[in-house]
Amino acid sequence: MNKYLLYPGCSMESSAKAYMESLNTIMEPLDLNFEEINDWNCCGATEYLGINLIPAYSLIARNLALAANQMKDTRTVVAPCSACYLNLAKADHYMQERPSLGVKVNEALEAGGLQYKAGTLDVRHLIDILVYDIGLETIRSKVTHPLKGLKVVPYMGCMLPRPDYQNRWSDHEHPTELDDLLRALGADVIDYPLTTSCCGGHMTQIGPETAFELLRRLVADADERGAHMMVTVCPMCQMNVDAYQGEMNHYFGTHYHMPILFFTQLMGLAFGRKPGEVGIGTELVSSRNALTNIGLEVPVTQEPVAKRKKDEGLPMPRRWTKREAGKETVK
Amino acid sequence: MPHMTDERVRAGITHEEDLSLLNEVSMKTAGVSHLEMCIQCGTCGGSCPAAMDMDHTPRMLFAMLRAGMREEVLRSNTPWICVSCYHCVVRCPQEVHIADVMYTLKGMASKAKLYRNSTAPHFSQTFVYMVETFGRSYELGLVALHYLRHFPLRLPGMMPMGFGMVTKGRMAIPPKKIKHMDQLKKILDRAKQLELTS
Questions:
Q1: CB pairs under 8 A between A and B
Q2: Where are the domains of chain A?
Q3: Residue A163, preceding bond cis, omega within 30 degrees?
Q4: Which of A123, B41, B164, B190 is deepest in the core (most CB within 10 A)?
Q5: Domain boundaries, chain B
């Protein structure tokens, strides 16, 4: 039994629901046991750190303190979200690197009857434990439906391999963990030099032109390399590439259709689960055509919105055009 | 003190040194920032995927910090364009915690009310408001408030996406709330007091 504490993170319950559903399907075959941290709170993402220092770190540290209280068979906390992983690891690391921060954070925690000694826990990402604890051999042995013929580009994102406080990854800019894992599932892995390039993070919300260009680079390169889909380990990356691909296409006048799935969804499929069980169909850029390459029939899901038949008719607000976008540039 | 122009910074002219701003930023940054170790090599700007949209590259911003150009630094859009991808951080030969320095500068700029474009600060504040109210992030509330305030023109184009997110169950309508909100509130209140005294 491989036992770990789990910090799911907010997105696993909403925008990255498919990640959680598919994670649940691989627990039993891989003999994984996750104990969720009781009453965990949001890690603050990249937002709280830019407002106040002590409150931001105290918010993160409450989770670490709660996890430490639940420590019985394991001192490892697993976070499936790259931003959560980084924030938890960062708080733990900086409380040691700058002890005065640790003292202040603990003073704040005390107000809630908690405390945390930095270094108590080991913070790790889901793919880290799958590749290095469970092992590629075990994963390969559980594959019943190899993904032969499915061309994928592995997209690691930025916050997982960097800044890497504990030297966990094979490389900071071209890590191979995700490539290896997808290869173990039988997929045709395409070399993807942009694997740790940024998806834009929160820039889709605050400076869309900046984000659209970053997204275009990722999607265009995956497309040129002949990928059927991108595969990610991060809810934010999935959300940006998936949900904003339409707006990005509109902005540049392009017509890319590049689905992006979580690596756990492909693991579930390779372990013999049905597409519906691993959350396939919840992505906005449908992976239906891509999955026909491995002989999977995905039932058609309802198209989100019917297109208007004519452009004239009732007066409607104009669509957001490139020229207007220029006016809203963050300058 | 007369403010230096960007041209003078580019030319590497740093007249009488005033390190108080540099030290202040370094002290306010989590961890040991190594900011004073910057050798102006420019690896950061060269590694940055978003540098094309920045008023100043990180290298130039750090030269301005060293020159004590408080107002210009806090008006710069650079920290707000930073996407926290940590490319510069792992490449910096001096191990400056560049991304964390950017977080510090955002906080200082918000407090000084010097950055003119309010989109990014408002997004952070709305996000934090949700977290301080519910203990969890609340995407639907966040995007609704944020887009109505800053991108009303984007809303029509975004309807299919928002509709898809809700119908596919990827955006919860009611917010989730943690059980011990009172405990979290106490911790954050105490932390805010500590922030003021530090």
A1: 252
A2: 2-125, 145-294
A3: yes
A4: A123
A5: 6-112, 119-197
CB A251 within 8 A of CB A174: no
- CA–CA distance, A218 with A9 (Å, rounded to integer): 25
Please, what CATH class does the domain formed by A2-125 belong to? mainly alpha
Write the DSSP symbol of residue A155. Answer: E
CA-based Rg of chain A, rounded to a whole angstrom?
Answer: 21
CATH architecture of B6-112: Orthogonal Bundle (1.10)
Q: Do B119 and A59 touch (CB under 8 A)?
A: no
Whole-Å CA distances, A232 to A156, A229, A268: 6, 10, 14
Q: Which residues of B52-73 are buried (b: 16+ CB within 10 A; e: fewer)?
A: ebbbbbbbbbbbbbbbbbbebb
User: Per this entry, what is the length of chain B?
Assistant: 198
User: Measured between alpha carbons, how far is B180 from A9 in angstroms, rounded to an integer?
Assistant: 17
What's A145-294's CATH class?
alpha beta
Q: Nearest Cβ partner of B186 from A112, A210, A331?
A: A112
Task: Give dist(CA A115, CA A61) in Å, integer.
Answer: 8
**Nearest CA of chain B to the CA of A39: how many Å?**
6
- Which residue out of A12, A41, A245, A285 would a mutagenesis test of the B interface target, given it has the greatest number of B Cβ atoms within 10 Å? A41
pTM: 0.90
Q: Do domains A2-125 and A145-294 have the same CATH topology?
A: no
CA B148 to each of CA B119, B123, B145, B153, B156: distance values in angstroms, whole numbers, following the listed order? 11, 12, 5, 9, 11
